[in-house]
Each structure stands twice: as structure tokens, then as C-alpha cells.
Amino acid sequence: MNPFNNQGPCAGPMRRRSFLEIGGLSVLGLGMSDFLKMKAEAAAVGNSMEDRSVIFIWLPGGMPHMETYDMKPEAPSEYRGDFRPIRTNVKGIEVCEHMPMHAKIADKFAVIRSMHHEFADHGGAHKRMMTGRPPKTPTGTVNDAPAVPCIVKKILSSQKGNLEMPISVAGQDSNNMDSYALGSAYLGPANTPFLIPGNPNSENFKVNNIGVNPEMESRLDDRLAMLKGMDQFKRDIDKSGSMEAMDTFNAQAMEMLMSEDVRKAFDLKEEPDSVRERYGRSAYGQRGLLARRLVEAGSRFVTMVWQSPFVGNGSVTPKSSTGNWDCHAVNAHIFEDMKWRLPVYDQALTALIEDLYQRGLDEKVMLVVGSDFGHTPKINPQRGTKTGVVQPGRDHWPKAMSVLVSGGNMPMGQLIGATNDKGEHPVERVMTPNDLWATVYQHLGIDYNQYIKDLTGLPRQILPFGKPIKELARMG
Question: Which of 47, 251, 260, 458 has the most CB within a 10 Å radius?
């Protein structure tokens, strides 16, 4: 019985006050007249801006392409590793044996195997991936250019609909939006997310707290900023007088956070147990389900960070594994880690893909799954920090990486690009993150060649280079 048919429609120190346990809500600031003008222009060329959404799943640490979507079974053993590929329901597409659910729905996703960039440090790689620009510094995750969700917010935000604005949902094992290079840089603090703690897999999960990013603290009364609960906030807000002191951005954010529609979208208890079980009672699974609920409720861009697969409830990361996808030998025994991590990932991601298709969301929602980089094709054994023994691992490798795409009314069941016989570098359809983002912008009805103004009024091009991936052109 299909559960989806049972329901209706390597990080540094971080500042505690600026993060969320499950996520942050962003509200942006384009005038209504500008927004309506852009909607009319999009409609004139056949795009319905309010109809399109993106779910971006971020796998920090670097998903190893050789253990997932770009296996090389004929390569020497020191390259191919322990796992073998399995066939899928699409001829010519194979995936790792530890992702059997993927094998059943390969007709509903496409894999780009030829993505690459030049930054081997997590910081530089995060910034390169998230902004579509080579960063000024190769380390650190504080952006010198705005992340794509911030640009999307700047362009598409309206003053109606509490969930039209982008939403970022990240793991509680980090405590700053800058951890993932999701900052707004020269677009200013009005595009920095509000912070809402919580764990969607928790039995008592609800949106009941407000966190305030550092840039906003100077504009809010300390007492208001420290209010612990949404209900208390609603009772006190008129008496405090703080609402009058907020600018339009703050007022819109608070209105959104007090909305019953928002609360309902975040309430996973609205879902049948069978659906929650299909996604898996993991951090990946319940964040995936939350992503579907948010885009279904109207959010235009949802970022989900899938870091550690299990969080809280007494869960413990095995000694041979690590908290994210960074599969250095010093961090993890790559094959033991993947045997623990991939089944959770397999269940959560395939549930999300199937759910989007079965609910008719695949035409309007584009799902993207990516990470900071791939990992070295050649295995590099080292002594594990936690295990104390020499174990296999793979180091950082930006020269080749895989990205999965699903939905968006795009042709699925295809492999795009290829790497050489050892998975070292692209040899067909060489692409950068900019080509991916050009495709995302196009899906949302955004002209990726246009300019937006920074805080000083200087025009900045949304994307300095790159073009949409032709193999992912919308089918009508």
C-alpha cells in the first residue's frame, strides 16, 4: 500500500544567537509594483512566477561521487572501492548498491556527472557553490557575494502570501547561517534569514520561538529579541511598542511567523504516520517531508541541509562515521560510513521525489541535490581520529562532482555529462555551478542576466557567467 495515497493535498566557531536548530525564515524587500511588473513580464513569455518553486538539498562535507552516482567498477581497486553499482529502471543508469530505492525511480531524476570548480577547502567550495561566483578568499564561509536564495528572495518577494518567500532549514549541529555560506553579503541584512529553532523529527516540534540575526539586534528592543515563545510574543507585541519601531521587513517577518498557515505547514503531525515512516524518522527524512509541505504551502525556495542523518532521541554517530559527508580517512571509514548513511539518504530522497510526483508537484517544483565538492577518486588511507586505526577514505576533490535534479517539468531518466574512467575530471559536457544556477533561475522565471542594486545603489549582475543546461529544458 502506498503511504502517499493516504492523505490530501569542517566548520569553525559560530555565534549561538544567530542560528536556528532547524531553520531560518527569510522575508525580502521588493516593492509590490516591481513584483507585479516582473510577474507580468514573466507571463508574457510563458512563465508563471508564482507557480514555480525550488527545493535545494545541501549535503555539506562533499558527497563522494564514486560511492553514489558515478561509480567506476572497471577502475583499479584503489579507485573503485568496495561497492558495486546496480541497474535501475532506466537502461544505462546505475547507482550504488546501497541505494536500491533509487534504482526503482531513476525515470524520475537526472544526474549531472560533470560538475566541477576550483576550490578544495570547504569554505571556498561552499561560497563558490552557493553564490555562483569565485570567492575572494579560498577559506571561510562568510560570503562576499549573496547566496542564490538571497537573490531569489530579493527578486521574487511580495507583500502577500506568508510562505512565498524563501525558507532555509539547517541542522542543529551548526548555529549560524554563515556556516553554509548562505549570507546576503552586499544585499544587506534585510535579506538575512530570521531564525527558528526546532527539530522536525521531535514529537513536540512546532514553530514557537523567534531568533534574531546579529544585524537586526540593534533595531529591536532587547526584551522583544529575547522573547522565548510565539504565543507570548503575540500577547506582548502591542504593549511593547516594538512593532512600531520595526521597518517593513521586520513587520512582514513577524506577521509571517504569527500566521496560522505557517504554523500548520511546519506541523508534521498533520501528516499520516505512514507518510512519515516512508520518508524515515531521520533528520534527512523529516526535513525532506517538511520541504514538500513548505513548497506545497507556497514557499518559492526551500533550502534543506542534510548533514548528520540522525539527530537527538539518543542517536549516536558510529565511531567509523562522521557528522557530515566529509569522508576523509581521519574522519571516517568511508565504506562503513556510507553503509550507515546511504540507506537513510536513499529512503528520504526517493520518498521526497515520489511524493512530489504523486501529488502533482513535479511540474512546478525543481528539486536539486548537491554538495560542496566530490571526493578524491583514489582512496587515501589514514589513521582515523576516532577509531585509532588506519582506514580508507577520500579527500576533497572539486574537479569532479555529481548533482541530482528531479521534477521541474524537465526530462528525467538521463545522465548528463561524464567523467573519465577513473572519475578524476569531466570529459563530456563540462559544467560549473553557474550552469546549474542559470537553470534554477530560468525555472523560477528569473532573467539570470539581469542586474540588481546593492546597498550602495551599484548594479550587480545576478550571475556573471553560465547558461541553462539544455538537457534540462522544460517540456512545455
Answer: 47
Model confidence pLDDT, tens digit, residues 71-115 = 999 999 999 999 999 999 999 999 999 999 999 999 999 999 999
Categorize the per-residue pLDDT at 440 as very low, low, confident or very high, splitting at 50, 70 and 90.
Answer: very high
* Residue carrying the nine cell digits 543546461: 469
DSSP state of 427: E
Compute CA distances 400 → 65, 103, 259, 419, 424, whole Å.
8, 23, 44, 7, 6
What is the Cα Rg of the chain in Å? 21
Amino acid present at 245 = A
DSSP per-residue letters across 373-395: -EE-SS---EE-TTT-SEE----
Cα 224 from chain centre: 30
Q: Give the C-alpha separation, 357 to 300, whole Å.
A: 18
What is d(CA 403, CA 395) in angstroms, rounded to the nearest whole number? 18
How far apart (Å, rounded) are the C-alpha atoms in residues 190 and 450? 21
**Using an 8 Å Cβ cutoff, are 119 and 138 in contact?**
yes
Cβ pair 153, 301 in contact under 8 A: yes
The CA-atom distances, in angstroms, between 304 and each of 22, 105, 166, 190, 462 are 9, 21, 11, 21, 22
Nearest C-alpha neighbor of 365 from the set 416, 305, 409, 413: 409
What is the spatial distance between Cα 127 and Cα 124, in angstroms, rounded to a whole number? Answer: 5
pLDDT classification of 202: cutoffs 50, 70, 90: low
- Is 0.90 topped by the overall pTM? no
**Domains, the chain, with CATH or none:** 3-472 (3.40.720)
Question: Which regions of 128-189 does DSSP assign to beta strands (E)?
Answer: 167-169
Q: How far apart are the first and last CA of the chain?
A: 33
Contact (CB, 8 A) for 77 and 85: no
Alpha-carbon gap, residue 290 to 21, rounded angstroms: 14
Answer whether residue 309 shows pLDDT above 60: yes
CA 215 to chain centre: 23
Tell whether the torsion through CA atoms of 64, 65, 71 and 76 is positive or negative: negative
CA angle 210/168/52 to nearest 5° reads 125
Residue among 438, 443, 442, 440 nearest 465 (CA): 438
The three grid cell numbers given for residue 262, joined into one nine-digit string: 505557517
State how far the Cα of 330 lies from the Cα of 346, in Å rounded to an integer: 25
Residue 182 CA, chain-centre distance (Å), reads: 10
Contact 460, 453 (CB under 8 A): yes
Please provide residue 264's backbone torsions phi and psi, each rounded to the nearest 5 degrees. Answer: -65, -40
